[in-house]
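Moderator note: this is an archived Q&A kept for reference. The question asked for a predicted structure of one protein chain; the sequence and the answer are reproduced below.
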Amino acid sequence: MTEPHEMTAREQAAALRRGDLGAVELVEHALRRVEALDGGLGAFVTVTADRALDEARAAEKRLAAGGDDLPPFLGVPTAIKDLAMTAGVATSFGSPVYAGWVPDVDDDSARLLRTAGTISLGKTATPEFGLPPYTEPAGRPAAVTPWDPTRLAGGSSGGAGAATAAGLVAFAHGTDGGGSIRIPAAACGLVGLKTSRGLVSRGPAGGDPLGMSVSGPLARTVDDAAAMLDALADVVPGEPYPLLAPRPETYLAAALRAAPRRLRIGRYRTPPVPDAVLDPACVDAYERATDLLTGLGHEVVEFAPGIDGSFLPVFETLWAVLAHGHPVPPEAEPLLAPLTRWWRDRGSAVSGPEYLAATQSALAVTRRVVGAQAAAGVDVVLTPMLAQLPRPVGWFTDGGDPAEDFARQKRFTPFTATYNITGQPALSLPVAFARPVDGPADGPELPVSVQLVGRAGDDALLLELGAQLDAASGRDAARRPPDVVTPPTRRARVTWSHGA
């Protein structure tokens, strides 16, 4: 008999509707897995057990009453990234500066997922203010990929990636400002969608002036990711970058169809970051995806993406200023991680005119990159997802130099941040497994992913193509990493909330 954690989110929802599972039973099962496994994963920073069980009991009553207006995921467990506010639940943004802070309002993403019927088990780990592409919050265990717990789960949605891949939840909420959904999806063998700018609200207080950071799903299957997006992609008045064109269908319908028209797909693999070198496994996955797409009838062509040397300085200037997005009292500055202080110092040195010039340059980058795609008649862009396989715990911070830390970040993930500037949707999709070149010859295999980038607003097409490629790859979405028993010393670091 299939265990509840082996089901997809859509399968869990269907089982609840049929009465094959009870919502309390499902939530209790998920909480037992969190208790048993999360100390070895570092996925959660707060577990709201009592609150989740209360919501499960309420969901059971609604399910028993029936009706045609039940939310699509009524009773299905999920989790909210600790960068998103959740009313009544501690939200630290990955920083000791905000330890114990409890907001009285939800981020729209948390609200919309609750409206869809999901039950949050708590808050997933993120690095301080979501700045780096790895998740090692101060005073807590690193979030690791369950495929090899000696290696990082990526970031900044690393806790969400670890929780989903390990089957603590079937899908989870993430945010992506420079690759922060796609990177952990790749490290953990998941589907991760950076949504189009303006498709999912970052309100009421989240986001940034240029809309680089977006909310989106991490899931084990493309259709689960699409179904979560249907819940998140609601029009919220007052959003600064609304998508005005109505969508013709649900995102789930596109993913289930998995049969897009013949597409022209432009590919490139030269990293737009100096000194970045591709791991052979990343190249092999990229070539395999090319062969599969060609075999599906799509035209795959070499493509010049329009990214030049101006891209990195623009992104770094904007990122440094965004490091000030969470207020920090002067007396609390010593609590910040060295990397956070380094970014904030850089941001403080940026004048108003310099920031304005960077925003104007970002618009120029967008026109150049989007224009290159349009001029080439390219519907979708294919790249390697990462330049390297998941890095060992401590690899980025080894030596304690924030500048070297960031240099390693750029070499690890050179293909992601461009599309946060342009606002285009981008999908991380696993297509292979490989052993890392810096690991033992008999060590565990790790997932290897590619990135598909669509035109702004073409999230449905991207999911449709992703589902088609996923099916062609022969990937077994039911393949699971082994359960790793929790060391008691790590289990104690998760906060279990037994109140509101």
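Archived answer notes: The longest strand covers residues 426-434.
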